[in-house]
User: What shape does this take?
Amino acid sequence: MESFRDVPKNVASDKRQTYREITPAAVILGVLWGAFMAASFTYAGMIMGFTSGGSAIAAIVGWGILRGVLKKGTVVENNIVQTIASAVNISVSGVIFTIPALYIMGMHEEISTLYFFLATAAGAILGITFIIPLRKQMIEIDRLKFPTGTAVATVLKTPGSGIEKARLLFFGMILSALVYLVQQFPLLGLPHVLPEVINIGSFLHLPSWINLAMALSLMVFGMGLITGRNGLIVLAGGALSYYIITPVVKALGWIPSDVQGAAVSSFVYGNMTRPLGIGMLLGGSIAGLILSLPVIAVAIKSIAQANKMGARSRNEELPISYLYVGAGLAFLLLFITAYRLSNLGLGRSLLTAFIGVAWIFIASLLVAMSTGMTDWSPVSGLSLVSVMILLYLTNKNVPLTILLGATVGVAISGAADMMQDLKTGHLVGGIPSRQQKVELLTAWIGPIIALTVVGLIWKAYGIGNDMVPAPQAMALKSMVDAILGGSVPIDKFLAGGILGFALSLSGVPGLGVLVGLSMYLPMLYILPYGLGCIVHELTKKKKGHEFITEKVLPFAAGLMVGEAAMTLLFAVLTVAGVLHP
Assistant: This one.
């Protein structure tokens, strides 16, 4: 498929009128699949503490439906499908890193659900409007890589391969859904055939304080299959926490005599590894901000360049007035939220709104540039820093602080996603203004779905336990509790911060944050995730990178989505009273 940018303008104009692009089929498929991914990835993210973008999955499904079922569809039409689907899905990360902390702390009922919906939906729109003026500079002039966007363009340009990948994806979905269904047989009055967890430590007759239980979860295994080498960092961090720090602490006699058996691991987690993990998250996030200062400077320069060429690109870009409207909307929203949900007063509410808008703008620039250069989007770290700043601005009003933190997280994740999608569109000949419009019209759906799923999971399974660990939210809760209680373990925070800062300066994007996060995950999920990472690397070594891309990744995506969807179905049935765990 030739790019429209490689042909004369008049010919490109004719082709754009001929080729199917924004069609009812593309919009409906994009919204439906995006909503399905948003629900599935919300649950998966609450298990592992991070999510997947889903653009490539949406492109694969798009070819499976458009060409495999409807027997029609163009590259640019499927580009609209993946643009909408990823816009709906991507913003869930901003929700699941923050809002579950309110449920864990029992504060979720202190704010009306309507405010949750409005604040996070507005955040999704703001992230897009704030980044609109930078498209031409980042993509066409600076020619940033945006690796994910480039990979998705490759999928779009190979419809035949896309249909085959869709078959593998759907097979993976069916397999993982069936395995989960068999595991839940006792709930349906059927024989117990397949356990959800196996205790390897008990099988090997290891001491009870050695935590070596593993969840039999194809979803988590699939996430590891997708991640590969970088995910081994999480496995290493978990091993450090559970199999090095815990035995050392026990050997040194730092554990009270009345703490015995399995309680040893919990004691070390609560008093050692958890505060070290928080410190590493903070240290890694601060290092990421410092490393990104040159990026912010370049981004601000890009805005100046974008303004100069505004007249020339008017036919392709949404006007910069969208940015001004977005900034005004953000300020008004944050001001009303701060003023109505607290006793800050007029002046302090205005200051909170101003700093909130400025931080959303800076953070959106940061993630867009960072994603373009490294494909790493530091949403969780920036959300954590946001909450720290806002906690003091709001006089330690925790519900308001976390709500505003969710707004920031949703905005910056949306900004990164839109630039990836626009890179894809640039490579396949899409019209930027059309992609921007469909994102603005649909991005608000994702946060609402994510908030609904969080509430559903809370009612069905609870949050912050072995089944739904929500590590990012647990880290946020621990940090807030320490600040409010005046019991901040400064020595452990400082030690973890220095280590996380140093790791993040190692050249591996987000290394300090990843290792810190792994100290919050139970080995129950770290083990199957790490196993998936190992299988990915061994398969790549034996079969090659192309086999991973063409066969393993779509199948792994299906494993991930199928179990998550089935889990949510069982959660709905549980909340409705049909099932009784």
Observations:
- Residues 21-192+264-575 form one domain.
- The longest helix spans residues 398-428.
- Residues 1-17, 311-315 have pLDDT under 50 and may be disordered.
